[in-house]
Amino acid sequence: MAESSGYAVFFFPPALEALGDGIKPYLQMGPAGPFVPCREVDTGGAFVEMTLEGRAPDGRTVELELMVPGNMVRMIVSARADAEFGFYDRTKPVAVGVKEASEPVTTAPTAATDAPPPALPPA
Length: 123
Fold this sequence. Notes:
- It contains one helix and seven strands; from the N terminus they run E-H-E-E-E-E-E-E.
- It has one helix at residues 13-19; strands at 4-11, 28-30, 33-38, 40-42, 47-55, 61-69, 73-80.
- The model is unreliable at 96-112 (pLDDT under 50).
C-alpha cells in the first residue's frame, strides 16, 4: 500500500465565507471545490489543526499550522502519492498503473455465443 502524502481538507461554504480573506492564501481549487492541502491533520479537539508546508518570500520552506473550528470542516480526504487526487477525469489519458473502469476484465474463458443457457435446478 502506498504511503500517504497528505490530506485535503474541504470546508462548508458558510465556513469559507466566515473565514473570508484569511483562508484564501491556503486554498487550492479542485474538481470537488476549494480545499486546503495539508501534510498532517489533527482532529482531536474543538479545533481541526492542519500542518501545511509553505514558502517564505525568500524561498525558504516553512511549516505553518492552521487551526479552524471543527464544525467548519465538511470532509478530510487522504491523498496518495501513487495516484491522482480528486475525481477521475475520463477525458484525460489514463496514467500508468491506473486501469479504466470501462475495460472488460476477463478472468475465465467466455462461453460460446450459440450455446444454450444453463438449465436451472429443480425447485
